[in-house]
Amino acid sequence: MTALAPTVTAPGDARPRRWGRRRVVGVVALVILLLIAVILSVTFGARDVTAADVWAGLNGSTDSASSAAVAKRIPRTVLAILVGAALAVAGTVLQGATRNPLADPQILGINGGAGLAIVTGIAFFGLSSPSMYIWTGMLGAAGAAVLVYAIGSLGRGGATPLRLALAGAVTAVAFSSLTSAILLPRTEVLNVFRFWQIGGVGGATFPTILQVLPFLGVGLLVCLASASALNTLALGDELAAGLGARVRTARLIATGGAVVLCGAATAVAGPIGFVGLVVPHMLRLLVGVDHRWLLPVSALGGAVLLTLADVVGRVVARPEEIEVGIVTALIGAPFFIALVRRQRMRAL
């Protein structure tokens, strides 16, 4: 999807009004879908529940197994919404900042870097506090982002979209192998984090959510504040600089917000992939390429996708569960292959 320069519309042109209506309808539809996803997430799972059980669980009752199941699903649903929104916004920002349609926290190795840092901290430094997981995850995500960009910048031509995608894929594989090498000889660590490696929200608790919420909030605010800068970067570095934009500063700030979101989300839910790839591309068709609309709408879309993916993982293999990271991979891998095969998807 190539970036297009802004076009001047003639007086009375209906295109802005048409886009405006489409955006409003799209936002309303996503809000309705999110409400439906929340209801499904609270209602469906390994145990069937009634409306009375749902009401009791919402009131905090755990007197019966069904109401206790509902009470456990509530923080799980909240975490799925937050993580889905964070990953979708991070993917949108990374695609805009790098002008790379293949950019995604998982594909670029950022989630893998956060995961490797957390596992290393647990295995060798005895990390046990969720807040330390978050800080460690953000440091790992930042280090991975720097490493991928450095590798992708080697040689002539600098950091092209294809080089960044290849460098990210190689780095992600390397981080995954290193993580496995650390975990396999350490049974006690492996037992705790073998499901976390896949990515899931099943262990959500409100104390954990409250600890990660400030980091997600800061990252989201930074990304939303970068919307206008991302619109300018989409015109190309030279034209953006000609318009007075500080290209490197804008790219650094936007990427920093995405790294905070990736690190925090990975710390609490594991390295969930493809949400940041699928959602931005789908929603560009709905609201266009203006990041002032695309970023908040991507947050809604990511929340819907991850919440529904979690519901699917709970239902299709009852009474067992399929971790949400596997479900998003099944959705995102074919999308990624189709995206790579499109010849014109070389830069945003």
Automatic annotation (TrEMBL):
InterPro entries: ABC_BtuC-like, ABC_transptr_permease_BtuC. SUPFAM superfamilies: ABC transporter involved in vitamin B12 uptake, BtuC (SSF81345). Gene3D superfamilies: ABC transporter involved in vitamin B12 uptake, BtuC. It is a multi-pass membrane protein. Keywords: Cell membrane, Membrane, Transmembrane, Transmembrane helix, Transport. It is found in: Cell membrane. The chain crosses the membrane at residues 24-46, 77-95, 107-127, 133-152, 164-184, 204-231, 252-273, 293-312, 324-341. Belongs to the binding-protein-dependent transport system permease family. FecCD subfamily. This is Iron ABC transporter permease. The lineage of its organism: Bacteria, Bacillati, Actinomycetota, Actinomycetes, Micrococcales.
